[in-house]
Design a protein that fits this description.
Elements: E1 10-16, H1 21-29, H2 31-34, H3 38-42, E2 45-49, E3 69-74, E4 77-83, H4 88-99
Parallel strand pairs: 1-2
Antiparallel strand pairs: 1-3, 3-4
Length: 107
């Protein structure tokens, strides 16, 4: 039996859909290196298929309507989101602005 895992202190939740071309572009350009970046270590990537419904452990500010949508979550609450994926440059810039909203890491 699989139980839902609780939201991490900080995580980047990627809401995706099977057959999504922009999700595939993210998969090819960003996903292979994401976990090795400062952002990836600070907010690990979690994937949610929108067809499976919304996870109950995240308080979203608004419904997710498009894929991909990246929601930065801290302690189960949405901090901000990136709707869509245009390019890796745009993604990293937008993600940097979002992660600046997180509380500083504590030792």
């Amino acid at each position: 039996m699989c139980t839902p895992r609780p939201a991490a202190a900080s995580e980047l939740v990627m809401f995706e859909r099977k057959g999504c071309v922009y999700c595939q572009r993210f998969e090819e350009t960003v996903a292979p290196i994401y976990g090795r970046t400062d952002e990836g270590r600070r907010a690990p990537l979690r994937r949610v298929d929108v067809s499976d419904g919304m996870p109950g452990d995240i308080a979203l500010a608004a419904p997710v309507r498009f894929s991909p949508t990246f929601v930065l979550v801290d302690h189960g609450r949405e901090i901000g989101r990136i709707t869509g994926y245009a390019s890796d440059e745009a993604f990293w810039g937008l993600l940097g602005a979002l992660t600046d909203k997180l509380a500083p890491d504590r030792p």
